Amino acid sequence: MERLSPLDAIFLDAEDADPHVSMAIGAIGVLPGPVPSQAEFMAALVPRLRAVRRAQQRVRRLPFDLGPPVWGDLGHFDADYHFRRTALPAPGDDAALCALVARVMGQRLDRDRPLWESWVIEGLSGDRWAVLIKLHHCLADGMSGAQLVAALFATAPQPTGEPDWHAEPQPNTATLLWDAFGDITSNSLRVLSRALHDPKDAAQRVADTFAGLSRMSTALTPATPSSLTGPIGRSRRYAVARASLPDIRAIGATFGATVNDVALTAITLGYREVLRHRGERPDTDTLRAAVPVSIRATDNLDNQISVLLPTLPVEIADPVMALHEVHQRLADLKHSKEAEAATTVAALSGHEPFAFTTLAIRLVSRLPQRNIVTVTTNVPGPPTQLAMLGRPVLEAFPYVPIALRIRTGVAALSYHDQMTFGVTADFDSNPDVTLLTTAIERAIADLTAAAELHAEATSRLS
């Protein structure tokens, strides 16, 4: 029986601390018609899912959180429960699709069952339909979630025969508690043994961690108050922006930036426009973001991420200057070992009694944090076009959850030759959510135009 890592368990605790929060991530794929029947759709996906053990397990928590939660096999997997179907009202446009996604993703997953759902959505305009895959964040991060979705929509032949694993009998609670105590002891001894075996490496790790924690301590300074943070309700809004991935790569190549830099700059300029539209001043300390960074070393379906906490330059109006500033700030944070420090702290929490760790997380989750204003994540998706039942996936959109007084979050997903931005927003405080997506698209267009002018000027000089 496998235990959840401290990072996986954080997403359960964050959800438990606030009844208004659903910590599910999601991906939406849009396909051309005709829409397959429910039987046809399940026949295509169920064999692939049966090979994914985690898709047939549920979370078990120990009494009084005396040990970390564990993944437990189910004696019977009810596939019919997880495969849902609905339809959009006419005219089936983007607004209708986004409203449905917001409603589905705002509802919590049932903890007594495997923590995922699949929705077929009929009635999209242009004889199209969509698939929404919903996963709890404790089960996967953006990268592993995207890999799972890509595997479900792969063109490779379906697996045949029985999966290469079998459901295990579930141990009783006393056995789980004893095993949890044994793991804490053995893990602590392993860390000590590694430090004694290579003290130079251990000293360097400690130095890097303290350097990163020193830099992260600046995030304890409250951000400039704005309408972007505050209490959130249970309901959500969702909107999408689209951009050409070749255009984004060209922008990066022209100005010496990465694809992630360009995406984050577009998001920054989008928030600048939102603040100005609301009559608020975009100051230098207005927009501190939590930016997940992949530290994935295995293909496991879990969370292998750290985080950077940059303050994004919403005070800069010029798109190219903003791009240079975003690039420099992210480079400085990476050099400061901030991500490594966050990873080390999360790893060390696994050597402490879980009851203390989970209590601390829940207490912090209930505090009115004023330091982080948004979460922005960029997930590299499949570079080639996926298909389902002979129908190509035309577009793909990401969904990121919000919590901890963060009223909006933005996820970017690259797929084939397109990058899409999915904006999740608290319903009551963000009636203007489409203003942000429109501003993101405008920022990409402005950067594209600037890159073309730069290329023309360089060509004339050569």
Radius of gyration from the alpha-carbon trace, in angstroms: 23 Å
Report the β-strand fraction as a percent range.
Answer: 15-25%
Fourth-tier CATH superfamily name: Nonribosomal peptide synthetase, condensation domain
- Reported CATH architecture: 2-Layer Sandwich
Structural domain tally: 1
**Count, helices:** 13
**Low-confidence runs (pLDDT<50, min 5 residues)?**
208-214
Q: How do the strands line up in the largest sheet?
A: 8-16-15-11-9-10
- The counted number of beta strands is 16
For the terminal residues, how far apart are their CA atoms?
64 Å
- Classified by CATH, the class is Alpha Beta
Apparent shape: globular
Q: The CATH topology is what?
A: Chloramphenicol Acetyltransferase
Secondary-structure topology with pairs:
Layout: E1 2-3, H1 6-17, E2 24-32, H2 38-50, E3 57-60, E4 70-73, H3 79-82, E5 83-87, H4 94-106, E6 116-124, E7 128-136, H5 142-152, H6 173-197, H7 199-216, E8 236-244, H8 245-255, H9 259-277, E9 289-294, E10 305-308, H10 319-335, H11 338-348, H12 354-366, E11 374-380, E12 387-388, E13 391-392, E14 395-399, E15 408-415, E16 418-426, H13 433-461
Parallel strand pairs: 5-6, 9-11, 11-15
Antiparallel strand pairs: 1-4, 2-7, 2-14, 3-4, 6-7, 8-16, 9-10, 12-13, 15-16
